Amino acid sequence: MKKILIVAILLISFLSYGQKKSKLTDEEYFNKYVTENLNTFTFNGQKPVGSGWTILENLFAENQFVAWGEYHNSPVVSQLTSFALESASHNGFKFWCVETSPFMASELMRIAKTSNPIETILKLPRIAPNSVS
Fold it and tell me: What is the structure's pLDDT at 78?
């Protein structure tokens, strides 16, 4: 009887200890994963600098397809795209696919339908100086 009581006490203590560990919610798990795997970079005025940029350049060198996400409505997205296009082209990338807003899609269609799309694109910096870099 004494042995059964000791075994029961041990089982109860192990089982109750195991139940105290709470599972992470999907949101908590996602936030933990993102923070553990986050890499960033900054612009030093000439080009992006930091571990995130090094990783992106390595991805261009080692892969056939690369996808990323960025903050929308940021004035530096066009700079990032310009640097990324340059880095990708050095690694053999010849095609570029981008997500566009409905406004940009309609603007691209409007430009494509003009008699001289290249001239229209070249005029954009004069019409809207912050729209193209």
Answer: 76
Query: If residue 110 lies in a helix (H) or strand (E), which one and from where to where?
Result: helix 102-113
**Longest CA pairwise span in the chain (Å):** 97
Provide the CA 17 distance to its chain's centre, in angstroms.
39
Mean pLDDT to the nearest integer, 11-20: 61
Tell me, what's the pLDDT at 34?
A: 87
* Predicted confidence band of residue 20 (pLDDT cuts 50, 70, 90): low
Q: What's the whole-number mean pLDDT along residues 14-37? A: 77
DSSP labels, 22-82: PPPPHHHHHHHHHHHT----EE-SSSEESHHHHHHHHHHHH-S-------TT-TTHHHHHH
Q: How far apart (Å, rounded) are the C-alpha atoms in residues 14 and 116?
A: 77
Q: How far apart are CA 89 and CA 68, in angstroms?
A: 16
